[in-house]
Design goal:
transmembrane, rod-shaped, Apolipoprotein acyltransferase, mainly alpha, about 55 residues, transmembrane helix, 2 helices
Length: about 55
């Protein structure tokens, strides 16, 4: 669940970041995908850490 939330939040954040920098459609998509992947990986690490502690 954390991974999916990280993916969605990262994609939204990346898209907004690119839009703020006046990016075109492909720029916005690239930022959204990049941030989404980064946040999903962060969520994956967080999930593994939480599972190991519980």
């Amino acid at each position: 669940m954390i991974v999916i939330a990280g993916l969605v939040i990262g994609a939204i954040w990346g898209g907004l970041q690119a839009k703020r920098r006046k990016g075109k459609g492909f720029d916005i998509a690239q930022y959204a995908v990049g941030y989404g992947i980064a946040f999903a990986l962060l969520g994956m690490v967080l999930t593994v850490i939480l599972e190991r502690l519980v």
